[in-house]
Design a protein that fits this description.
Blueprint (H helix, E strand, L loop, with lengths): L23 H10 L1 E4 L4 E4 L5 E4 L5 H13 L7 E3 L9 E2 L5 E2 L3 E4 L5 E2 L9 H18 L32 H12 L5 H9 L7 E4 L8 E4 L2 E5 L6 E4 L1 H7 L7 H10 L6 H19 L1
Helix pairs in contact: 3-7, 6-8
InterPro entries: AGP_Transferase, Aminoglycoside_PTrfase, Kinase-like_dom_sf
Protein name: Aminoglycoside phosphotransferase domain-containing protein
Length: 291
């Protein structure tokens, strides 16, 4: 996951002098010896070549597309893709011979540095201000594209793990479409009164912007106080304007250093009602999807 990028490979052809896996078991072996990250839905390992492989999960096709799109907006900060299996529709799975199909991994270069969450609360005020100013530039560049519909960077509907397969929108969404979908999901486990109370805290007509979707310290790579990479683009796409703002203010990620960066980055009154609503909606969805 930690990678650096100046340009983006189309992906399907094998780059020279880089080992590539043919089975999940080969990457699982690296996970035992050279792990970078292991979570419920994904894992990242480092090969002997010093490059990273992100794997596990249903498919990385949408993340590849999002990284290519983001790479045109902030090219020096998006992981450089060295290789991935050919893009096509459908999820990654194993054939009868055990060989996976689909975009079952992404091979990337490694960004220099560490994730911001590991160092943020030991940073000086000057360093925190430096990080905040860089993030301001990142957000400004990412929010320049405009879209009339919510969904994938391809112009199609969302295709990410924020929605389970059976609830993935079948077309690009208007903002009212998205709110109606959220209402339908929330009513599975919440009263109508509570559901409407949650949704009423969100803007009635939110502009649509390109968003990372999980822009938190764990996904920001720094070398000193210089940002060298923004990683984990799996939920990126066109979202309501408030999405990245609210995710970045997630109370679970509150810390003295991150709170100070957010104060510098977002001038004006804190939009607490929106923050609380998005946090609670996300928590409910996580409980429904993952237990």
């Amino acid at each position: 996951m930690h990678t650096r990028s100046r340009s983006h490979s189309p992906g399907a052809s094998q780059p020279p002098d880089i080992w590539l896996p043919s089975t999940y078991e080969e990457l699982d072996a690296l996970l035992r010896t050279s792990p970078i990250y292991e979570g419920y839905l994904r894992a990242v390992v480092q090969s002997a070549d010093g490059v990273l492989f992100k794997y596990k999960g249903p498919s990385y096709a949408e993340e590849v597309r999002a990284m290519r799109y983001a790479g045109r907006l902030i090219p020096s900060l998006v992981p450089k893709i060295l290789h991935h299996p050919p893009l096509h529709r459908g999820v990654a799975h194993a054939r009868r011979d055990g060989r996976p199909t689909g975009v079952w991994y992404i091979c990337m270069e490694k960004c220099p540095g560490v994730s911001l969450d590991k160092v943020i609360d030991n940073m000086t005020p000057y360093e925190l201000n430096h990080v905040a100013e860089q993030l301001r530039t990142v957000l400004d560049k990412m929010q320049r594209p405009r879209s009339k519909k919510l969904g994938s960077v391809t112009g199609g509907p969302f295709r990410n793990n924020l929605f389970p397969d059976e609830l993935l929108p079948y077309r690009p969404s208007t903002y009212s479409d998205l709110i109606n979908l959220w209402r339908e999901i929330l009513l599975v486990c919440c009263s109508e009164t509570h559901t409407e109370n949650l949704l009423s805290r969100l803007p009635r007509n939110a502009p649509i912007r390109f968003a990372h979707g999980d822009l938190l310290p764990q996904n920001i790579i720094v070398n000193g106080s210089t940002i060298t990479g923004i990683i984990d683009w799996v939920t990126a796409g066109f979202w309501p304007e408030y999405w990245d703002y609210c995710v970045m203010h997630d109370p679970d990620w509150s810390s003295p250093g991150w709170d100070r960066i957010l104060e510098i980055l977002f001038v004006g009154k804190r939009r607490q009602a929106e923050i609380n609503a998005v946090h609670e909606i996300s928590e409910i969805f996580n409980r429904l999807w993952y237990g």
